[in-house]
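for the writeup, i need someone to sanity check this before i put it in the appendix. the sequnce is what the collaborator sent (i think, or maybe the updated version? ugh). structure was predicted straight from it, no edits. if anything looks off just tell me and ill rerun, i have time this weekend
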Amino acid sequence: MKTVGIIGSGIVGQTLGDGFLKYGHKVMIGTRDTSKLIDWQSKNGTNAHLGNASETATFGQILVLATKGTVAKDIIASLDAKSLEGKTIIDATNPITDEAPEDGVLKFFTKDQSLMEILQETAPKANFVKAFNTIGSGLMINPTFESKPTMFIAGNNDASKKEVGEIIEQFGFEVEDMGTAKASNVIEQLCILWCIPGFRENKWNHAFKLMKA
């Protein structure tokens, strides 16, 4: 059992929290307004906790960043660096602007550098691993497909990627390690591709699969 701190109280944070609780971990979700998650806490029992972002960062042996991409850097910068040092941080964010999609294509506020690279520079002693940013929240925990979908990950720390890989496999995915944080730029772009059928045809029940000969 590990303690997992989830920074971000939206549907992604709650869904991943449910997944960690399902497999016996203790979870704290960090939010500015804990009152809106009382129902989530009460339905999940004694292993479900609520706090603010700072308390959550201290609580978790593993952290999950599940905020809007537009506020992710500021939130990481606001936290005590010591509460992040040496910790694995699963980065589920995407650098999506507030602009509406055009022909189903989302717009990003990043260019040559990924959002995760920016976050890694903001907290250089933390170990960010990109994951869970290319799948809808309803499919994040043990989705049912004809075969296991692929979850692409990237990060600079091999031990943290191994730790995240074990979680991903438990949650019902195959893991494909794409290398260092530099690859997170490409993984983030997959979010745009994943969302196009949703915006164009209202089809959201799909996932990526890497086929190998």
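The CA atoms of residues 134 and 191 lie 5 Å apart. The first helix runs from residue 11 to 22.
thx in advance!!
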